[in-house]
Amino acid sequence: MAVVYLKDDNIKVSVSNGKTIRQIAQRVGASMEFGCRVGDCATCVATVKEGMQYLSPKNEKEIKALEMLDGDTTNLRLMCQCSVQSGEGEIIISYSF
Amino acid sequence: MLGEIVPVSENVHFIGAFDPKIRTFDIIMKTANGSSYNSYLVRGSKGVCVMDTVKKEFSDTFFRRLELLCEYDEILYIVLHHLEPDHSGALIELMQKAPKAKLIISGRAVMMLKGLIKTDIDFEVANTGKIISLGDKTIEFLSTPFLHWPDTMSSYLHEEKILFSGDVFGSHYYDERLFDDEVGDFSYAFKYYYDHIMRPFKQYVLQALKLYEKFEIEIIAPLHGPVLRSNPQFYIQEYSRWSSEAKFRKHAFNHKMISIFYMSSYDNTHKMAEKITEGADSIDGIVASMYDLASLEESNMIDLLEESDAVIVGSPTINGDAVKPAWDLLSCMAYLESNGKVGASFGSFGWTGEAPEMLHDRMRWLNFRLPVEPMKIKLIPTEEELYKCYLFGSEIAEISMGKMVEMEI
To answer: Using CB atoms within 10 A as the burial measure, which of A93, B54, B84, B407 is most buried?
Structure first.
């Protein structure tokens, strides 16, 4: 199982593949903020501190949404769009200001 | 009283509309003094930029004022700082009348525009730093999202030092004298607007104020209420203070605060609340306090919720539901940021016992952290069950102090 560390809530979750970070965060009661939940509004943008390689590649919606943000978006992902793709490894996510 | 032509500065005019009769705005806000839908026209040597429009019913006034100041083919840009219908109501008609004009919106506004307009129109996206020129006038854009929709942005007219702030610094206050140094006392409306519209987005307010810092601002031109020209820094400082001051206790004593709100029919949920409070308070760095929802005013609820690092809500189950004051308490979160607060629920029950789970679910949708399952006890708690309540309280307190939670799903 992959481990998702939701840094700002200090919650470590062991998860099976395929779940979006939104599903995980809402299941464990993390304080991540969500808006439209379909990849349009970029409310749920967060920084992947480590383990980007264990997440699904950016889809078209996500690429478009990230384009509208200021600054470097290399480590940013939309939590409602990206999902855990690898069985092993740790993904560290930060979502506070 | 204002005439039809209303200068804000040498090359900027007010072309908005007044709505003296409105008494309830957006369902939730009382507007005893009515409101205004502010729109502005900026003239440069090469053409004109229109800053926002008005609510659709007020389009006639908007176009009448606009036509006194320019020809439609002079309009190079239409900027929408915020797409809510009270500011985009005249957009389609304006774009039809001014086909040369380019629409400028924020990136987050793109999907909203489609939802509102239901037709394809051309637009250009503005992020922080984007600049447009009207010849001798320069307008710079600032991305100031979530104030109070995702799409919101601001802009700054360099040559006349005017900040077009969107809904930020707005007031629902109708007064045709328009300028803050000429209108009546609108301070209550300014604060009320902040409390109801901006308070849930304090972190974003602070981010926006930081962006505004780089500009010398002589006039703030918001989308509602008086234009602020007498001392713009005063209003900026008020926003800064209100957005920074939340945690009184944290500042004063360096404690984390846990609030246990409860109601009790037969003293059982009350007994649980006492033990949970005792358990929470036993952890170093925590101050835990109990509040009986039976006699708590809404304004006190809002302040207590805002100051609390963790919120624990207790309700008995009556006819398969939590009691109304518990729902009323959680509905106050509409005025606040919930991110980062730990939440939990509990209650004694006699028959079906849904209330704690229902409150837990509600708190999930309000973005509370919910690291522990709801605590339910059948009727009168035993000593052993009361000890579990104590541990429930201390666990929540430890998590509030930073203890890591590990789970498998």
So the answer is: B54
Q: How far is CA A87 from the centre of its chain?
A: 16
Instruction: Note the Cα A19 to chain centre separation in Å.
Output: 10
Q: How far apart are the first and last CA of chain A?
A: 29
Q: What is the structure's pLDDT at B249? A: 53
Per-residue model confidence as pLDDT tens digits over A80-96: 999 999 778 999 999 97
Q: Which residue among A29, A35, A97 places its CB closest to the CB of B369? A: A29
Q: Distance between CA A63 and CA A83 in Å, rounded?
A: 15
Amino acid at A80: C
Sheet holding B40-43, edge to edge: B6-9, B12-14, B40-43, B48-51, B75-79, B102-105, B124-125
Q: pTM for the whole thing?
A: 0.84
- pLDDT score at B248: 55
Nearest residue in A to B141, CA atom: A70
Residue B337 at interface with chain A, using a CB cutoff of 8 Å: no
Asked if residue B251 has a cis previous peptide bond (ω within 30° of 0), the answer is no
A13 touches chain B (CB under 8 A): yes
What is the average pLDDT score of chain B?
A: 94
Tell me if B408 and A13 make a contact (CB, 8 A cut-off).
yes
> For the segment A45-94, what is each residue's pLDDT rounded down to a tens digit?
999 999 999 999 999 999 988 887 878 899 999 999 999 997 789 999 99
Give chain B's radius of gyration (CA, Å). 25
> Which parts of chain B sit beneath pLDDT 70?
1-2, 246-253
Is B404 close to A11, i.e. CB distance below 8 A? yes
Contacts of B340 (CB under 8 A, 6+ apart): A8, A9, A31, A96, B309, B369
C-beta atoms of B408 and A36 within 8 A: no
DSSP B218-240: SEEEESSS-BB-S-HHHHHHHHH
Q: Tell me if B129 and A11 make a contact (CB, 8 A cut-off).
A: no
> CB-side exposure of B168: number of CA atoms within 13 Å?
35
pLDDT tens string B218-250: 999 999 999 999 999 999 999 999 998 765 556
Chain A nearest C-alpha distance from B403 (Å): 7
